[in-house]
Design goal:
The complex is a heterodimer of chains A (686) and B (122). Chain A is an alpha+beta fold. Chain A contains 27 helices and ten strands. In chain A, strands 1, 4, 5, 6, 7, 8, 9 and 10 form an eight-stranded antiparallel sheet that branches. Chain A has a two-stranded antiparallel ribbon with strand order 2-3. Chain B is built from four helices and six strands, in the order H-E-E-E-H-H-E-E-E-H. In chain B, helix 3 crosses helix 4. The chains are: A alpha+beta (686), B alpha+beta (122). At the A-B interface, strand 6 of A face helix 3, strand 4, strand 5 and helix 4 of B.
């Protein structure tokens, strides 16, 4: 095979004398560029992916633009979230895939991918929205520049907020159909089996219940009524004890709120409103919530935990909604929004200090429990325990409760684990200390064990639901019970989305509320696109033709290729010839080529040769990066390719080696450099 | 002669759209940096503060997925905000925004960070 390729190279080399020394069959002086006047990319513009790791999707959108009928400008965000859900989410269940970095450096499942896979997934998913249907890809350019008016919500930050919330809900309610993954690491197969069965049953129940009650939230106004109807219908089906007037008051509260809001929006019409005599329009803005709470509390018995959560969250959002302009669906002022949510934010500020890493929270809680030990009997062994306790417990948690059979209780597990480390401790001594603990704390220890070792979150979910309805005592409880720290993050996510995302104008309040309530039941890509692109329905998505196939070609220098300078040179020649043949063929047909390169060579002054050792550091050399080849030329016998990047104004090339194109964001790069630094290229079929 | 000089100077300036208006961006032929044209008239923060931009402040996988390194440097190394501009053809580009309103292109930050890195090695 290699001989055949070598022969081909030699033939090409010989033939190229008549054309260009390194240009194969391409005549010297020929220039092909797809962004020219008649090119397939004449209307394509350079993108800037900013802080999102979506290069593969940016490149895919360029490639698809060049090859699809009517040359559509496809949303790279849509392409990326579809890829993230289908590929990266299988590797990391969380929308964040990074636990070690601080808040502003977190990574997401959105970061990193491949061009061909992205295109294939988009095909399977039924298409992609146009860029013009994704406001986020437009609205960022409409922000004012000036003090106090900066667009603080960058693309990345918006996605972090969305992803954080998405994760938090799925963590809190692992009974959602998607959450079956979480039980994969259960140590006890019997328990695992039972939970799996349980999850299936609960999952079906949640879905069924969701169908019944779904859709109660939509446009603020009409759907208030739908919501009340849903609650009231439920009451009608199964009459609840209590005076009938509660129903009437609920109806009235709804009517009153609508009037109140209408009056706020259109003051001139206030006079024309019919006078409502009984009951009076509530002066207390919380009255509406209280009324609904009453109805909720009486009807929650037959709701699933998730429904209860949704209803309670609905109320939370509703409470905030009073200060939003219904007419424009925009938050009035940040200050107002903060005031509205100050009851949350004060709490959340303190909760925010809690780590969102459950294991860490567990350790913290255990250490808190350890404080009780410090106050216990003063025998020598207690001091020894005190000295070693933190580290041992940390190890136990970090290593997991992996002993078989799974201890029945937290007490047994701790004793077992501690005795493995400190055999001199007797059961009596251990019990003596434990017996001094507050029974409530002991109960928390057991709950924590159930959650961590048995993956039983039911008690935690119940607690959270209870606190959603009434948060008295939450702040104190959260210090004792680590499971509630996630709850804090979740509410923090709600606050972030409601007060932050809305202000960016990428989504209105309705859609944010809808996302808050329904995101956990849908895939990552579906929920995000529904939030960010309400106008792009399945019917409006641009379908990718089945016959438009995409194939990857890898460039790999094996040990044989690397055995000598001559073999390396030969390999480079072979790969150059192969790429020339395939890429030029594709470009002549108007189709751009996606490539994955080690971007270090973009800015290295010396010759960079990634394929020599396949070492492409992420730290300061940007790692592998997908870009598009949108043209070629044979100039003075040398082959160059026109690269379109997705970094906006892209100029920091070593201009001795690479030539900046006259158009921004593009550069001519010689075939030698490209081949040496390319990991793979993606070609669309004929 | 003056007219020619003036024309030549103007070719280094391009207009970029923002919120219904335009900002003039200057491409410095000497330093190759791209920044607010107003910085030619006064010592703007974008030129002063960007001198300290460094790759060191980025975490190991800050650039995963081919993120625009300049945008990441703006946010993580300089702790500034990004603004999104379009040129008259509709090409998109991010710029780093400083308190005095001045801008510097994300790509210029890559250049400065590389230069700082090179200086550090010496």
């Amino acid at each position: 095979m290699k001989k055949l390729i070598l022969t081909s190279v030699l033939i090409l080399s010989f033939t190229s004398q008549a054309y260009g020394q390194n240009c194969g069959m391409i005549p010297d002086g020929q220039v092909v560029r797809l962004d020219g006047e008649n090119g397939s990319l004449k209307n394509n513009r350079v993108q800037d992916q900013d802080g999102l790791g979506t290069c593969y999707a940016n490149a895919a959108s360029v490639v698809l633009h060049s090859a699809m009928p009517d040359a559509p400008n496809l949303s790279y965000i849509n392409l990326a979230v579809e890829y993230a859900e289908s590929v990266n989410r299988n590797k990391s269940r969380r929308a964040y895939n990074d636990k070690k970095n601080p808040e502003d450096k977190k990574q997401m499942i959105l970061d990193g991918g491949h061009v061909c896979e992205t295109i294939e997934i988009a095909k399977q998913k039924g298409g992609v929205c146009k860029r013009s249907d994704v406001p986020l890809e437009e609205v960022l350019f409409k922000n004012k520049i000036g003090a106090g008016a900066d667009p603080k919500q960058l693309q990345k930050e918006i996605f972090l907020k969305i992803s954080d919330y998405y994760d938090s809900v799925n963590r809190t309610f692992p009974t959602a159909p998607k959450s079956t993954v979480i039980i994969q690491d259960l140590v006890n197969p019997e328990v695992q089996k039972k939970i799996e069965e349980g999850v299936q049953v609960i999952g079906k129940t949640v879905v069924e219940a969701g169908k019944k009650i779904g859709g109660f939230l939509g446009s603020l106004g009409s759907k208030f009524k739908s919501f009340f109807d849903a609650v009231l219908d439920r009451k009608r089906e199964e009459p609840l004890p209590g005076p009938v007037i509660i129903e009437d008051r609920n109806e009235q509260a709804y009517e009153d709120l609508i009037k109140k809001v209408s009056a706020t929006d259109e003051p001139s019409k206030q006079v024309e409103q019919p006078v409502v005599e009984e009951p009076q329009t509530p002066k207390d803005p919380n009255l509406f919530s209280r009324e609904k709470f009453e109805a909720l509390k009486k009807s929650t018995k037959e709701l699933s935990p998730k429904e209860k959560y949704q209803l309670a969250l609905y109320d939370l959002i509703q409470k905030n909604a009073a200060d939003y302009s219904l007419k424009n669906c925009e938050v009035l002022e940040t200050k107002n929004a903060i005031t509205v949510t100050q009851d949350l934010s004060a709490l959340l500020y303190s909760l925010g200090k809690s780590s969102n890493n459950r294991m860490y929270s567990n350790i913290s809680a255990t250490l808190s429990i350890g404080e009780y030990y410090y106050k216990g009997p003063s025998e020598l062994w207690v001091f020894k325990l005190r000295k070693n306790f933190e580290e041992k417990i940390k190890q136990i948690y970090l290593n997991g409760f992996s002993r078989f059979p799974l201890p029945k209780s937290g007490r047994d597990a701790f004793l077992q684990a501690l005795r493995a480390e400190m055999p001199e401790i007797t059961e009596d001594q251990f019990n003596e200390v434990l017996n001094q603990l507050d029974p409530e704390v002991m109960s928390l220890l057991e709950d924590d064990y159930d959650r961590y070792a048995k993956k039983d979150y039911s008690k935690c979910s119940q607690k959270k639901l209870a606190y959603l309805l009434n948060d008295d005592g939450l702040k104190k409880d959260i210090e004792l019970d680590p499971c509630l720290s996630q709850y804090g993050n979740q509410l923090s996510g709600v606050q972030n989305l409601v007060t932050g995302l809305d202000k960016t104008n990428v989504a209105d309040f309705d859609r944010i509320a809808d996302f808050l309530l329904n995101a956990p039941d849908t895939d990552y890509d579906e929920s995000i696109m529904k939030l960010l692109s309400p106008t792009c329905t399945d019917e409006q998505k641009i379908k990718i033709p089945d016959q438009l196939t995409c194939e990857d070609e890898a460039i790999y220098f094996d040990n044989d290729d690397l055995r000598s300078p001559q073999s390396i040179e030969l390999k480079v020649k072979q790969e150059k010839a192969k790429f020339l043949s395939k890429a030029s063929d594709s470009l002549k047909r108007g189709k751009a080529v996606g490539i994955s390169v080690c971007t270090a060579f973009f800015k290295q002054k010396s010759d960079y040769f990634y394929n020599l050792n396949r070492d492409c550091n992420l730290s300061d050399d940007t790692g592998m990066h997908a870009v598009s080849v949108i043209g070629y030329r044979c100039k003075a016998g040398k082959m160059d390719y026109l690269i379109q990047n997705s970094w906006g104004y892209w100029h920091n090339l070593d201009e001795v080696k690479y030539e900046r194109d006259e158009k921004i964001g593009k550069a001519w790069i010689d075939d030698d450099s490209l081949t040496k630094n390319m990991g793979r290229y993606s070609l669309l079929g004929k | 002669m003056i007219v020619l000089f003036s024309l030549k100077a103007h070719t280094r300036e391009t207009l970029w759209k923002v919120d219904g208006g335009y900002v003039a961006i200057f491409e410095d032929p000497k330093t190759k940096l791209i920044y607010s044209a107003s910085c030619k008239k006064y010592k703007c923060k974008s030129l002063i503060e960007s001198k300290k931009v460094s790759w060191k402040s980025l975490s190991e996988d800050s650039l995963l997925g081919g993120k625009n390194p300049g945008a990441v440097l703006c946010k993580e190394s300089l702790r500034k905000n990004i603004v999104y501009l379009k040129d008259l053809q509709g090409n998109e580009s991010t710029f780093c925004h400083f308190e005095d309103g001045s801008l510097i292109s994300s790509s210029s930050l890559i250049q400065i960070a590389d230069e700082n890195k090179a200086k550090g090695k010496k």
